[in-house]
Amino acid sequence: MSHPIRQVVLIMLSLCYGAVMAAINYTAPSLGFNQTFQQSWALYSPYFPVSEYAPPPTGCTITQVNLLQRHGARYPTASVGVSLQQSVAKLQGADLSDDPSLTFLMNFTYALGTDILVPYGAAQSFDAGQVHYTRYASLIDGDILPFVRASSSERVVESALNWTAGFAYASNQLYVPVLSVIISESGNDTLDNNMCPNAGSSDSETSEWLEIFAPDIADRLNMAAPGANLTNSDVLNLMYMCPFETVANEAPSAFCGLFSQGEFNSFEYYEDLKDYYGNGYGQQLGPVQGVGYVNELLARLTGQPVQDETQTNHTLDSSPVTFPLNRTFYADFTHDNEMISIYSAIGLFLQPHALDPSQPNTERTWVDYKLVPFSGRMVTEKLECTVAGETGDYVRILVNDAVQPMEFCGDTGSGVCALGDFVQSQQYARLNGEGDWALCSD
Ligand SMILES: *[C@@H]1O[C@H](CO)[C@@H](O)[C@H](O)[C@H]1NC(C)=O
Ligand SMILES: *[C@@H]1O[C@H](CO)[C@@H](O)[C@H](O)[C@H]1NC(C)=O
Ligand SMILES: *[C@@H]1O[C@H](CO)[C@@H](O)[C@H](O)[C@H]1NC(C)=O
Ligand SMILES: *[C@@H]1O[C@H](CO)[C@@H](O)[C@H](O)[C@H]1NC(C)=O
Ligand SMILES: *[C@@H]1O[C@H](CO)[C@@H](O)[C@H](O)[C@H]1NC(C)=O
Ligand SMILES: *[C@@H]1O[C@H](CO)[C@@H](O)[C@H](O)[C@H]1NC(C)=O
Ligand SMILES: *[C@@H]1O[C@H](CO)[C@@H](O)[C@H](O)[C@H]1NC(C)=O
Ligand SMILES: *[C@@H]1O[C@H](CO)[C@@H](O)[C@H](O)[C@H]1NC(C)=O
Predict the structure, then answer these.
(1) N or C: which end of the chain has fewer CB within 10 A?
(2) If pLDDT is split at 50, 70 and 90, which confidence band does 244 have?
(3) Which residue of the set 71, 132, 314, 335 is catalytic?
(4) Antiparallel, parallel or unpaired: β 417-418 and 390-399
(5) In terms of Cα–Cα distance, which of 202, 179, 117 is closest to 331?
């Protein structure tokens, strides 16, 4: 027979244990490299704030937040994983005895998973939830929690759940948002870019640049590892191993040591081209794939029903249960390609000159690590501002905490536009892509 007091203690212990488990402050650790190096990993860079968050201008208060966030760090996709293993195997089949930076390959076993978040990616999403609760706590009370949606990929759903866990943690479990809508990626989905089969690819631009920067690296490695016979694509694959292993193991990958900072800067540009010509301004059917989300954003900002004839699911968006308009905080979880399309539909990161596949323009603002790092985020804040005695609605957009210039709606340097002017500026979305959507499928 167990002693009653002992039983009580056991129950208390298990309650405490439960509470402690739920309350772990799981913060993404340092990965062991300097920022400059990690930023040259392009869309595989871990999130970092591009600027320090600046509160809205004097006279303005935030009345609504719209968060759009990429999932956290992940393993390679299944198809990429196969290519990575093939390139690693080629190098492992060569004579590696001459070069100390290569000897690790003698005992190396490829051990990366596929598709899903790595623990670091879960931690990044949890961190983001903490940051967003802390920053926007004034918009939250017991009746008005964030409304959360996710595209249906497992890594996106988990990122949303980890974000809600971080948000709840930061509020000391006072506010526990739930994931309310998971949008199927096999149907109409504004948080994924699977609905435009006729969109072209960036292959010709990325190949052009690869053929410029990779041959010297291939020659160097083939010299160091006689018999490897590495191609330009092998070089690229071996470079991918660096970020993927580092985020998976939360420790520097030995593959990083095979390449210089300058070589990774070329790699970064390769990915900039891929996004610019794959989903951005360089792709005729890139921006239109962001229109559905923009129309949802306009609906939330104006409190009016969604009007869209592109990627929205009308069943979901016409119901107050799955698309409410009376919240103060909306959080959506998505993929990098979709975010690129959305930036381009809105008019963000517009370049004065198209990206040159033969040479990086060092003045460009289209730099992947600032646009779509792992766990990257765009936040549209609706503001109420009193200007010269008149109160009205305004908006500003932050990408990875940097306030975006919005000349297209009359921003003259504060980063803020009148809501009406912003809505007016979004003609391309409001007109369903001005004919582009019809070109997406035959
Ligand atoms: C590889 O493993 C073998 C056996 O465990 C060991 O003797 C050898 O030193 C290792 N080589 C390297 C380069 O780590
Ligand atoms: C929002 O509207 C829904 C349904 O119309 C209602 O059930 C809910 O209480 C409202 N929430 C707030 C915060 O006003
Ligand atoms: C992240 O979410 C997954 C799935 O819900 C969960 O198993 C994991 O414990 C979460 N991690 C954190 C850090 O919240
Ligand atoms: C969790 O840890 C991070 C990093 O140490 C810190 O910035 C944050 O304030 C902590 N969160 C809470 C709720 O204590
Ligand atoms: C729209 O969403 C509903 C509810 O989730 C789902 O049953 C339906 O299949 C979706 N339709 C399309 C075309 O995506
Ligand atoms: C090296 O690769 C090229 C192209 O893949 C191939 O044509 C050639 O036969 C290979 N050479 C050796 C020595 O394996
Ligand atoms: C950052 O780290 C990389 C890789 O270790 C190294 O090549 C580079 O020189 C470092 N840069 C700075 C500014 O420390
Ligand atoms: C899904 O999108 C297509 C293309 O815009 C549209 O014709 C269809 O009505 C949509 N279906 C739903 C359920 O919203």
Answers:
(1) N
(2) very high
(3) 71
(4) antiparallel
(5) 179
Mean pLDDT of all residues in 327-337: 98
Q: What percentage of the chain carries pLDDT values higher than 90?
A: 92
Nearest to 355 by CA among 428, 406, 286, 305: 286
Write the pLDDT tens digit of every residue in 161-181: 999 999 999 999 999 999 999
CA–centroid distance, residue 30 to ligand 4 (Å): 14
Q: Name the phi and psi angles at 10, rounded to 5.
A: -60, -45
Distance CA 378, CA 371 (A): 9
Task: Give the containing element (helix H, strand E) for 269.
Answer: helix 261-278
The answer to whether 314 is a known catalytic residue is: no
User: What's the total number of domains in the chain?
Assistant: 1
Q: Judge if the beta carbon of residue 303 lies within 6 A of ligand 2.
A: no
Q: What is the pLDDT of residues 10-41, one digit of tens each?
A: 333 333 333 333 456 677 889 999 999 999 99
Q: Is 168 in the pocket of ligand 4 (CB under 6 A)?
A: no
Q: What is the pTM of this model?
A: 0.93
* Partners of 330 in beta bridges: 66, 147
Kindly give the residue spans of alpha helices, DSSP state H, lying in 118-202: 119-136, 154-170
Q: Which atom of ligand 1 is nearest to the CA of 106?
A: 13
- Closest approach atom of ligand 6 to CA 229: 1
Domain interval for residue 258? 4-439
CATH number for the domain spanning 389: value is 3.40.50.1240
Query: In this structure, what token pair is assigned to residue 255?
Result: 């593959």
